[in-house]
Structures are given as C-alpha cells and as structure tokens.
From TrEMBL:
Highest rank taxon of the organism: Bacteria
Record-level Gene Ontology MF annotations: hydrolase activity, hydrolyzing O-glycosyl compounds; polysaccharide binding
Name listed for the protein in its UniProt record: Lectin
Gene3D superfamilies: 2.60.40.290
Region (Disordered): 139-166
Ranges for domain CBM2: 27-136
UniProt KW Signal keyword: yes
GO BP: any one term: carbohydrate metabolic process
Pfam family membership, one: CBM_2
Length: 360
C-alpha cells in the first residue's frame, strides 16, 4: 500500500544508574545528592549516541564535574554541552559556561557520540563533584567522606547484533552523503513508542521494541544511488528508494520477507521529491525521506506521523486499507490521530494475523 505520508520512528532507552553509599558525617554537614539518567538514544555496529541528564538533589553548586568509568572498550568521540575528556576507561565531563550553576532540584544535560566493541554496557556508578549519585540527597562533609558504594544499573542496552525476537525491529539507513543527526534516531524512536502505546490502548496488548529501539545503519551508497538504481526513469519511481533500502537491509542483516523473527520497520533518508514513497505489507514497513524528516520533528505536526506509523504498522500486522474514510487508522482517518480507533473486526484480524503472537 502506498504511504500516505507517514513517519518512522527510535526511542530511546532510559538507563538510570545509581549506587548505595554510606557517608561518615558530622553536625553541620552540607547536603549533597544527585540523580543521573544515562540514555542510549541510538546504537549501531561500532558506535552509539548517548544523552546524560543530571539532577542536583543537594545544595546549589556553581560548577560541576561528572565522572564515570566505562566497563569495556567504550570511548567518547564527540560531545556537546559539556567538555568531556577520557583517560583509559575513566571519563570526566565538566560544565560549559552556560550550564554550570545548578540549584537544588535543577537539571541539565549533555550528549556524546561514542565507539564500542564487544558490548556496550551502561556505566554502573556516576559521581557529581565526587559524590556518588544515588538518586537521593544526604549529608556530606567538605573533606572527603568515608564511602563504601555498591553500584547497580537498572538495565543495559541490547547489542544490535542480537536483538530480541518477536519484536518490532527498526532501522534508520543513512546514505553516505547524509550527516549523522541525533534527531533522526531519537525522533523515530519516539514515534515507535507512541505507536506502541496506541496499540496497547486499542488492543489491550502491544508489540515489543528492542533495547536499542533504532539501529542506525551507515548505508553503502549515496542518496542518488538509492533514488536511481534499479529504477526505470520513465516508469513508476514510487518504490525505488525503499526497495533498494530493503534489499540492502536483507543482505546485510540476513532478513527474510516476511521474517518470522521480527516485524521490520525500515526508514531511509533519501527521496526523489514527488516520486518516492513507501508503504507496508505483512512483516515490513518501508518509508522514505519525508517520513524520517517527520519523525525528527522537521516536517509538520507530530500527530500526523504518529497516525501514519499506526496505519503502516496495521499493514505490517496484516490489515488491508479500509474502503472508505471510516474513522479507523486504516483509512485517511489516521490524519485525525489520536481521534481514530480500530474497529472490532480490525482488532480481531490483528490478533489472528501472522504477527498476532508478537503482541502481549
């Protein structure tokens, strides 16, 4: 079915790291405490993007340094909103001029791109100005306190080489001449999570996403190749871009069409304006450039892309288009999202369909 203008969409996984700490204190001690949320926003073979949010739970600070230690061969390659340095596995992030003051309860964040090999676990312990971030506030002394810490992490990101089965597996393919932009995997993930929420609302159950919601794929060709290769210049060019993407994803990741392991969503940042498009069939959703732009927040109101993804996933789960504008998301009523709902017949068909067992 031809895409009516849908977007694709990656979120993110939020990983909160903390540790239990015992502090030796005395009367009149200052109050210190912090919470750190470490988010793997996207991950691809050998690289990843992360966002680190800091909340100061103690007395106000004027200038901060956040430190942690990577567990494996991870490294920071680029950072923004903080000055990040690394010595071996030890990493230090220092505020920049405009975000150094944190009042009690105030938050700030910074991001970075990194490299990994083998695995990409979440750092177990973070320290803000040498205080272990446990998610609570407590007294501390200006001198170094005696501290015994038992770090833990609530979860670790999945390896993109071994995603869970019976999940919706999402790819963003970036051609060689397209610069990496964090808004795309983040935005695609947001759309997928909204579609996930909607399916639970409608069906009482929903699909699972992988720990790394969107796998960023560095394409083998530039945008012109995806637009023009295997495409009759005088014929219908609608499917050329997404068909080339699908062929590459199938070859590089060993995917079938359909694939019993995953319902696959593929998004590519390439499009021949007015000619390229996308759509879906059981087991696959294929979307081109304007959909990726929509997910990244660059192409109009988000409800249009949320509704479009719900519509295309409906095809992925085996539903046909409605024959009229009937108030369901399988018709043009998806443009009215969230004021659109599956019919009982559509719900039954999804649950009895080829991917109904993916829903829980």
């Amino acid at each position: 079915m031809r895409n009516r203008g849908l977007m694709l969409a990656t979120a993110t996984i939020v990983l909160v790291a903390g540790g239990a700490a015992e502090l030796s204190t005395s009367a009149g001690a200052a109050v210190a405490g912090c919470r750190v949320t470490y988010t793997i926003s996207s991950q691809w073979q050998g690289g990843f993007g992360a966002n680190v949010a800091i909340t100061n739970l103690g007395d106000p600070v004027n200038g901060w340094t956040l430190t942690w230690t990577f567990a494996t061969s991870q490294s920071v390659t680029q950072a923004w909103n903080a000055t990040v340095t690394q010595n071996g596995a030890a990493v230090s992030a220092v505020n920049v001029g405009y975000n150094g003051v944190l009042g009690t309860g105030a938050s700030t964040s910074f991001g970075f791109n990194g490299a990994w090999s083998g695995s990409n676990p979440v750092p177990a312990t973070f320290r803000l100005n040498n205080v272990v971030c446990t998610g609570t506030a407590g007294p501390t002394m200006s001198a170094s306190p005696t501290r015994s810490a038992s770090p833990s992490a609530s979860s670790t990101p999945g390896n993109p080489g071994t995603p869970g089965t019976k999940t919706v597996r999402v790819f963003w393919l970036k051609p060689t001449n397209v610069a990496f932009d964090q808004r795309y995997p983040d935005g695609i993930a947001t759309v997928m999570r909204e579609a996930q929420r909607y399916y639970r609302q409608e069906l009482g159950r929903t699909f699972a996403l992988n720990a790394t919601v969107v796998e960023t794929v560095n394409g083998e060709h530039d945008t012109s190749w995806y637009i023009n290769t295997n495409c009759d210049p005088n014929g219908d060019r609608y499917w050329c871009v997404v068909a080339n993407m699908q062929a590459e994803l199938r070859r590089r990741f060993g995917l079938a069409n359909p694939d019993s392991r995953w319902l696959v969503v593929g998004e590519i940042s390439a499009e021949d304006p007015g000619k390229s498009g996308g759509g879906a069939s059981p087991g696959w959703v294929l979307l081109s450039g304007h959909d990726a732009d929509g997910g990244a927040g660059l192409n109009g109101p988000m409800n249009r892309w949320y509704g479009g993804m719900v519509h295309e996933l409906g095809h992925g789960f085996g539903l046909p288009d409605s024959t009229s504008t009937d108030g369901t998301p399988m018709s043009a009523s998806f443009y009215s999202y969230p004021n659109t709902h599956f019919s009982q017949a559509q719900k039954n068909a999804i649950l009895a369909g080829p991917y109904g067992s993916f829903l829980s």
